[in-house]
Amino acid sequence: RAKELGGGRVEVFAPHMHADAVRRLELGSDLQRALAEEEFAVEFQPVVELGTSRVTGVEALVRWWRGSEPVPPEEFIGPAEESGLMIPLGDWVLHEACREVARWRADSWDIGLSVNFTARQIAAPRFVESVAAALEETGLPPSALTLEVREEVLVEDAGQNVERLSRLRDLGVRLAIDDFGTGYASLAYLGQLPVDIIKIDPSFVAGLGRDETLTLLTRTIVRLGRDLGLTVVAEGIERPEQLELLREMDCPRGQGFLVARPMAAGRVESLVRTNLRGTPGRIELPLEGS
Ligand code: C2E
Ligand code: MG
Ligand code: MG
Ligand code: MG
């Protein structure tokens, strides 16, 4: 835009942009301290099989307790990437999460783990080796781990990303497209990408039963996933009506505050224990199917 305005002009940053840059810098150095002082934690959000309420897995979600204030991941993941801290932080999250889930599995609980990765994490020099090392060190079998990436990661400048993710997939690791339907992944790509799971973005699920188009689109994604042999997970289930419609659509899996919130590892264990319904690993859902 500065160019369009012609020669002789200098692009000037607005004061709020400057403040923003300063804030990001400050956040960057604070993140370094936070990592050293162990202010980060991993929470786990259960994912269930909608037909049976069985907990098939958990999604690891990083938490930053800055002082005693939680900082949302959306606020610190960008700065963490810019300051190069996302690589050690992501590695820490992966190890913590693998260790926890490997422990559950050793207790003969058949449960999987999903971990989120950004494009920059995947582009890191030793990405493939570091994931393989985490599996090796914690004893989690590769087939119990799913990497969640957003559509952009697979489409924009995707050559190297896809190749790296394919190498992990060859080891048995699964791949999920997160926030499906909001990015650039055209349907044509879907058949060619090394993908196992699509996670329907909450913006579709939010409209279930309230918005005809969003309901139709959700139904179409569920069917598309099924026809392509992919596992579909609906994200952001908050209302019983959404759960009911997803079950009626035969959506295989779901996740959301109505099912269970993200929580500390110990709470996942007690939730599952106190909700035993004859079969281990089930949690009680509203509108339990007959
Ligand atoms: P995501 O991977 O799509 O994770 C789902 C987000 O939706 C989580 O937010 C979760 O707390 C929230 N959520 C789950 N169920 C519901 C619901 O029913 N309603 C609503 N309103 N929200 C729900 P969170 O933990 O704030 O994470 C936000 C994003 O930050 C994640 O989106 C993911 O992209 C990123 N993120 C979180 N942890 C990590 C991590 O360890 N590594 C990386 N690279 N990214 C992470
Ligand atoms: Mg995710
Ligand atoms: Mg998501
Ligand atoms: Mg998201």
From TrEMBL:
Domain annotation EAL: ranges: 24-276
Tree of life domain: Bacteria
UniProt keyword annotations, A-Z: Membrane, Transmembrane, Transmembrane helix
UniProt name for this protein: EAL domain-containing protein
Source taxonomy: Bacteria, Bacillati, Actinomycetota, Actinomycetes, Streptosporangiales
